[in-house]
Amino acid sequence: MLFFEDIEVGWRRELGRHTFTADEIKRFASRYDPQLFHIDENEAKKSHFGALCASGWHTAAVCMRTIVESSKQLADAMAARGEKVAKTGPSPGFSNLKWLKPVYAGDTISFVSEVIETRPSESRTGWGIVRTRFSGHNQNGAPVYQFEGVVFVERRST
Amino acid sequence: MLFFEDIEVGWRRELGRHTFTADEIKRFASRYDPQLFHIDENEAKKSHFGALCASGWHTAAVCMRTIVESSKQLADAMAARGEKVAKTGPSPGFSNLKWLKPVYAGDTISFVSEVIETRPSESRTGWGIVRTRFSGHNQNGAPVYQFEGVVFVERRST
Cα dist. B102→A88, A109, B27, B58 in Å? Predict the structure, then answer.
């Protein structure tokens, strides 16, 4: 991760994209959210969704993967350039998680992060607090998912 | 589901319990949350968690399964008694999701629901709104997870 001092409000990163196949939607939902509109195309057609769509927890899990993988890529790229990589602390939590539209079978969701607040931590010397909005948009540009996360980020020791 | 008129604040249900094995924790995390403390026992020991623990999204997904399965059991039992089963509408969302403590490999989490608010819907005639707190406790009784969900529930047409 960048050091706290190098992170600015508005910093936006493309985290990755993922196409939700019908098979994958049904596999996740069979295990964790076996509602008919997530596991059966015909039942989904008759539901208020109108077609097979992913469990919201599936969308959340895939988003988490893009966050972890893109953070690792960022850290690896910094290390490869010989830059020191800042530590991050445990997250104090998140808020405002919303599933804004269904994610249908075949949809490709692009996930992005955008920093919306930065402030020094009052309780933990040497750390800053960064609030980020994570969101997913489908192939038509429509927002389908979002949440805000907060994380402690190491400050430069100068 | 019970009809809106039959649901009272304080109605509490045991939804089910689940033991999170190390294999399962690593399998979920490898796919959706590949941070070292979720996929490698030795790295987890060195982390602030101190031992392998489940991705928060894994806990959330397992909780969702207990919600779906226990709702189906409730509906099946009502139908078997010849009672009419109330419809539920799409959920307008949830709030206050918190991961309160880590879920470690070997922990058994018991999930419960408790109704915390009921009110008639002003916008949708024939429906009521039910707010429920879902929570998970480990084998020591410590709360590890919670969120509040809102759902539309059919009213009796009298």
Answer: 18, 29, 17, 11
Write the residue in A48, A64, A93 that is nearest to B32 by C-beta: A64
pLDDT, one tens digit for every residue, chain A (158 residues):
899 999 999 999 999 999 999 999 999 999 999 999 999 999 999 998 999 999 999 999 999 999 999 999 999 999 999 999 998 877 767 888 999 999 999 999 999 999 999 999 999 889 999 999 999 999 999 999 999 999 999 999 75
The topology (CATH level 3) of A4-21+54-154 is Thiol Ester Dehydrase; Chain A (3.10.129)
A85 — phi, psi (to 5°)? -100, 130
> Which positions in chain B touch A150 (Cβ < 8 Å)?
none
The Cα B62–Cα A31 span in angstroms is: 8
What residues in B contact A102, CB-CB < 8 Å? none
The residues spanned by each domain of chain B are 4-154
CATH of domain B4-154: 3.10.129.10
Judged by CB atoms closer than 8 Å, whether chains meet at B33 and A64 is answered as yes
Provide the shortest C-alpha distance from residue B125 to chain A (in Å).
18
Distance from CA of B99 to the nearest CA of A (A): 8
Contact at CB, B65 and A32, closer than 8 angstroms: yes
Q: d(Cα A69, Cα A88) in Å, to the nearest integer?
A: 15
Q: What is the ipTM of this complex?
A: 0.89
Which residues on B lie below 8 Å from A57 (Cβ)? 57, 60-61, 64
Cα–Cα distances (Å) from B142 to A113, B42, B108, in that order, read: 33, 25, 11
Which residues are CB-contacts of A25 (< 8 A; sequence separation ≥ 6)? A38, A52, A53, A54, A55, A58, A105
Q: Helices B22-32 & B56-80, crossing angle to 10 degrees?
A: 110
Give the pTM: 0.92
